[in-house]
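Aim 2 progress update. The chain analyzed this quarter is reproduced below.
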Amino acid sequence: MAKLNIKPLADRVLVRPAEAEEKTSSGIIIPDTAKEKPMEGEVIAVGQGKKDEPLTVKKGDKVLYGKYSGTEITYEGEKYLIMRESDIYAII
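Predicted structure tokens:
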């Protein structure tokens, strides 16, 4: 992966979503149109936080977030989400 030149501002976090499941546990291949949107990913970059609220997540953390959280962006062919830290439910 090339150096990423995206720096989130304030309490925002840049997350690389996990890959969607390709098969079910019984081996059935899931078509692209039926794949579930992943709800976990890896933190790639974090902002500075707000004045009185430092961020609790850090680069490299695996996180769970809401199904419709964040804004999808594509940068150099990779898909990412930019979301507020409050959209993150847990660090796993």
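The mean pLDDT is 86. The longest strand covers residues 40-46. These observations will guide the mutagenesis experiments scheduled for the next reporting period.
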